[in-house]
Amino acid sequence: MVQIDAHQHYWDPARGDYDWMPRDNAVLNRSYGPADLSAKLAEAGVTHTVLVQAAATVAETEYMLGIADATPSVAGVVGWVDFEKPGHMADLKRLAEHPKFLGVRPMIQDIDDDGWMLRDDVQWGYRAVCDLGLTFDALGFPRHLANFLVLLKRYPDMRVVIDHCMKPQIAFHNAEDFDFWADGMSRLAETGAYCKLSGLVTEAGEHWTVTQLRPYACHVLSRFGADRVMWGSDWPVVRLRADYAGWRSAALELTGRLSPQDQARVFGGTAAEFYGLSV
Question: What b-and-e string marks burial along 14-32, b requiring 16 or more CB atoms within 10 Å of the CB?
Fold first, then answer.
């Protein structure tokens, strides 16, 4: 089976549109390109990746598509358009003509208004995603779970994948917060959404362990099933807590009780199906 990393980034801070990036963080605030990842992919046996937006600009999406054109390992790009500007429909239609453009990801986790996704003025964006046959990456925190459930029920035809398991706050684990997250994720699973097994080590803190991650991974796998779970590295963000091989090894251990067929889905088949990748 093909091995796919369903979520990674390339960026260059000198471009000037990564507003979220801390300027004093030496791990994040540097350029990352295909040459920085190629050896790690080869070592892991990963042949293809999905390149995901990290800046709230159309220009960054075009920058990523340029990388994809020159990089055979990049199977597709998840980009961005401004849902607050209906005029960006023209940009979305233009981007959708590119063979490696897969869909969009609004940076909802960085928006102060938790109800932003349900505002009347941004609904055109979801309808366009459906009409153009694109995908939608849902990026948020547990506090967004209820609103995402409303959104997914409103657009049952939208192909949605939840990024980073909706970022459970593993470093501050307690039973109440776990139950809140788990219940919300179970409800999202019932809509038919997919989920990325990614981002967990970043939310777990500096001294994370596989044991610490296991309840979260097990819940996602049990509710979504291997047919709707895809592994992603979230490289280079993952470097805040682990190297590429370290997180992949942990993920292989977390999925070790799956059948070979189901594990193959998580590490390639699911992403290929959801994004419609020609790999």
Answer: eeebbeeeeeeeeebeeeb
